[in-house]
Structures are given as C-alpha cells and as structure tokens.
Recover the amino acids of this structure.
C-alpha cells in the first residue's frame, strides 16, 4: 500500500500551484494519499522570515501522519522540506528548483542522507542559481536532474511528473 505525500508550494504561489497540483493528482492516481499545506500566510512575512513558520507548519502536518510521509517541495517548499527531513523521519524527498540559501536567513539547505531523494533544477533558473545546488548535490552525492528550463520549470511539468511516478514506484517497491 502506498503511503502519504505532503506537497509544499513555493513562495508567491499557493496549494493549487501547477506543479504541486499535477504531482498530487499523479500520486493519487497511483494510490497515494496527498495533502498540500497552505503557506500563504507565512509567506506574507517575507522569504527569510517565512522559513520558521513554514517548518513549524510542516512539522504539524507530519505529526498527524501515521507513518513517515514523502515530502515534495518546490523552491521555498523544497528548502523547508529538506530541513525538516533532518529533524523527523520521512520516506523520501522530491525537490524542485531548490535554493541552497535564502538571503537574510542563516540556515543553509540540507537533507537527511539516508532518505531516497531526487533534485530537479533548471539550467536557466533565474531565482535559485544552479551552481549552488549543483555543488550541494555533488558534495552529498545526490541525484540531480537538470532540465533546460527556468525557475518555474513550466516547460517540463510532464517530464517532472514522469520522474515523480518513477520515484514513487521505487519507494513503493522498497516498502
């Protein structure tokens, strides 16, 4: 039986954002349960100031789960998902357009290393420089898929969905 997935949207979007909506629908078609927390109130605090409230909100959602969930995140959602994985058990990390740092905040992106993970990033990401996450993935020996796209990854939603389906199949086969 597949598990539960928490999909965290990026800043300046919401729980109905394109990528998290497409990925949630795909996961549900594969038998997974999903939820998409709404971080819009947190995001009104600004990028650096929204990190701690987002982390607290994600902790609350994970605490309500019967088993460790898969965390999916886009941009700021990816950043906090990785940090939360250091603090509580999670079943997997599927992270898109991940910032290595958030200006104005001392926290650096990191992930729990014993958790299956896949990072996807755009060559032309104008918000989160590729060099920083490329260096992070190389140092941590994490899989990183780089696509010819910008920060929104809008040209690759279908291929990201296919990668997500493969990722979930792998997790389900290991359970």
């Amino acid at each position: 039986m597949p598990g539960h997935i928490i999909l965290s949207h990026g800043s300046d979007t919401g729980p109905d954002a394109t990528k998290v909506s497409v990925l949630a629908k795909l996961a549900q078609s594969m038998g997974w349960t999903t939820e998409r927390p709404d971080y819009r109130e947190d995001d009104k605090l600004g990028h650096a100031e929204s990190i701690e409230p987002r982390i607290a909100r994600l902790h609350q959602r994970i605490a309500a789960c019967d088993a460790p969930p898969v965390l999916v995140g886009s941009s700021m959602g990816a950043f906090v998902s990785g940090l939360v994985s250091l603090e509580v058990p999670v079943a997997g990390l599927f992270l898109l357009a991940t910032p290595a740092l958030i200006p104005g905040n001392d926290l650096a992106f990191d992930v729990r290393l014993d958790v299956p993970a896949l990072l996807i990033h755009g060559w032309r990401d104008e918000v989160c420089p590729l060099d920083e996450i490329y260096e992070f993935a190389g140092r941590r020996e994490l899989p990183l898929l780089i696509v010819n796209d910008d920060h929104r990854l809008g040209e690759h939603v279908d291929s990201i969905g296919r990668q997500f389906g493969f990722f979930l199949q792998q997790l389900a086969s290991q359970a």
In short: Residues 4-174 form a domain with the Rossmann fold fold (CATH 3.40.50.1820). The two ends are 9 Å apart (CA to CA).
